[in-house]
Write a structure and sequence with these properties.
eight-stranded antiparallel barrel; mainly beta; single chain; 8 strands; 143 residues; Lipocalin; 1 helix
């Protein structure tokens, strides 16, 4: 019985630790097709909403790339420094209700993010309903 109670306590402690950690911080983006690390995105909170900005591009030959396929104010702007996650709101363990921009194709998608573990972020971008989309997993950057 003691072992069971101890295991249950450790489980809840771990769960609370993951929730307390939150999504705010720097994350290494991983291309879901190639598995290649592409960039570092800093996720931050502003006025109760979550945003994400590209703070580093990991391939030296891509550091000065611009978003040629983007529309509006992002068109032909540098990807470095670009805010790609906009206006997510906390909804239980998930952040949703905002958008993500894919600078590769210039398209904006609805998205949601959740912590898969303390150092692994699940991000799903989709059109219409979440079943029509793709998922990426990003890893937390340790300072």
């Amino acid at each position: 019985m003691k072992n069971w109670m101890l295991a249950l306590g450790v489980f809840f402690l771990t769960l609370c630790s993951i929730q307390a950690q939150g999504v705010v911080g720097k994350w290494k983006t991983i291309d879901d097709e190639t598995g290649e690390a592409k960039s570092i995105v800093e996720i931050y909170e502003k006025s109760g909403k979550i945003y994400g900005k590209v703070v580093d591009i990991l391939r030296a030959d891509r550091k000065k790339d611009v978003c040629t396929k983007c529309d509006g104010t992002e068109k032909n702007k540098p990807i470095m420094g670009m805010v790609i996650i906009n206006g997510l709101k906390k909804d239980g363990a998930e952040y949703n209700g905002g958008t993500i921009l894919d600078p590769t194709n210039g398209k904006k998608y609805k998205c949601y993010i959740t912590l898969d573990s303390a150092d692994k972020l699940k991000l799903r971008g989709y059109v219409g309903i979440s079943i029509v989309g793709r998922t990426q997993y990003w890893t937390r950057v340790k300072n």
